[in-house]
Amino acid sequence: MTASVLLEPGANESTARGMDDEAESRTLMSIPSFKKFHFIWVEQEDALLLELKKALEEHRDEQECAKLVKKCYDHYTEAAHAKVRAAHEDASYIATGAWKTPFEAGMMWMGGWRPTTAIVLVFSLIGLQIENELQRLLEGINVSSMAALSAKQLAKLNALQQHTSTEEDEISNRLAVLQMLVADQQMTRATTADPPSSDCFNMAEIREAIEPKLAGLRDLFVEAETLRLRTLQELFDVLSPIQAAQYAVAALEMAKAIHKLGAEFRNAHSGDVNARTSDNPGLNIWDIACQGDVEKLQEAFNLGLNLSETDYDGRTPLHLAAGRGHLDCVALLVEKGAEVNVKDNDGVSPLIDALKGGHDQAAQFLLNNGATPEMKDAGSELCKAAANKDMEFVERLVKAGVDPNEADYSQRTPLHIVAADGTAKDVEFLVQEGADVLVKDRHGYTPLDEARENDNEATLKVLEAEVARRQHELEADDNNSDDNSSSSPLDDVQDMDLQFLEGDHEDHMLK
């Protein structure tokens, strides 16, 4: 998706209308759909980061770097349009970044990063890279990093920062006015009961009063999102392709670090409300399970604490014990009735936590006690692990029962990923476990196409042999089907019986 709605700087109102109109022309996105989209989008972003880092490490040429930067920009544009579509359902959810960790949301401005933050990052990189490249610069050696920005580029960056800051301030001022209007006469009339009573609110009247404010919030958010896109576009126009690729890597890694920090802050408070009791203010069943203290866990059970209580993220003590590989605690929790297939807020079960942590004994114990390898977006998890070269995790998931043909958002399977950038051994494992070599992604590419596209000779040989074998099997099946086509009239009766049974089975399933 390209940023076709972006116009010249200064035309932010018409640009915002264009972006909003484009969102209106599509199916509007519900908040649950947006959350699912964002989960998959982040995984694709991780894959893009790996591509960028690999290109810079291998000193790819400017043309290839330009393609990757364009790919990153288009990827970000896709998220921007998704947010605009979701804002039509709940502008407050999107504008406040409610899908982020509290720390991330606290650092956001109108549903995303401040556009001027992007420019500050460039200047920060310039300072750091000048320190790293100083000796080479003094020796007159040409460098392709931010340290080599020309006077013309610096002048353009300064101008970009000035007009971006002005537009930011304008949106912020209009937001302040909108926030004050929450206490206007219409809203006050709707919320003031006569006689005063907290139980006499007319919610229909309150909704009518707040609707114009929500519409105004959505419009401001769209303008802010448009400004972010335009700033990023102008920034990439100033930088060379290699500099832009370096910038994209720094921006993506910073976003990942802030998210991780936000998760740590959030996790530090998880369980406090539910786990500590008045009888035992220091007893926290999540801490105990995480530390693997089976004696304290038994003590908590004896005191009547609920060992299946969930924390802030929907995790139970079994999640934490399994994720750390504390087999004794896992066994005690299961013995005391902990649900083995319970899922946290991200759809992750204790079994998946054990597999992620590489704790085979804990995973096998859970499997022996009824755990199933069901997981949210299994295809995305498999593909992400394959892209990160974590084939051990892929093997654990597949051997535990996850279908190797599960696909991600782009209908790519782990075999597509491995074919492009993996080893012959990885391909052989997936094929042996039932991976389909003829499967196509949403662009029509098979794993064999990926191997050829990426000149991966190791996987290419294995896949060519396996595709030939698979096609031979299909041809043999077709021939057998043709041979059996002239059969007795009784076959028609058998077919009717089979259809009846299938229909009966479908009716039973529906019931």
Automatic annotation (TrEMBL):
<feature type="region of interest" description="Disordered">
    <location>
        <begin position="467"/>
        <end position="511"/>
    </location>
</feature>
<dbReference type="InterPro" id="IPR002110">
    <property type="entry name" value="Ankyrin_rpt"/>
</dbReference>
<dbReference type="Pfam" id="PF14144">
    <property type="entry name" value="DOG1"/>
</dbReference>
<dbReference type="GO" id="GO:0043565">
    <property type="term" value="F:sequence-specific DNA binding"/>
</dbReference>
<dbReference type="GO" id="GO:0006351">
    <property type="term" value="P:DNA-templated transcription"/>
</dbReference>
<feature type="repeat" description="ANK">
    <location>
        <begin position="313"/>
        <end position="345"/>
    </location>
</feature>
<keyword id="KW-0040">ANK repeat</keyword>
<dbReference type="InterPro" id="IPR036770">
    <property type="entry name" value="Ankyrin_rpt-contain_sf"/>
</dbReference>
<feature type="repeat" description="ANK">
    <location>
        <begin position="346"/>
        <end position="378"/>
    </location>
</feature>
<dbReference type="InterPro" id="IPR051886">
    <property type="entry name" value="Seed_Dev/Stress_Resp_Reg"/>
</dbReference>
<feature type="region of interest" description="Disordered">
    <location>
        <begin position="1"/>
        <end position="23"/>
    </location>
</feature>
<feature type="compositionally biased region" description="Basic and acidic residues">
    <location>
        <begin position="502"/>
        <end position="511"/>
    </location>
</feature>
<dbReference type="Pfam" id="PF12796">
    <property type="entry name" value="Ank_2"/>
</dbReference>
<feature type="domain" description="DOG1">
    <location>
        <begin position="31"/>
        <end position="268"/>
    </location>
</feature>
<feature type="repeat" description="ANK">
    <location>
        <begin position="410"/>
        <end position="442"/>
    </location>
</feature>
<protein>
    <recommendedName>
        <fullName>DOG1 domain-containing protein</fullName>
    </recommendedName>
</protein>
<dbReference type="InterPro" id="IPR025422">
    <property type="entry name" value="TGA_domain"/>
</dbReference>
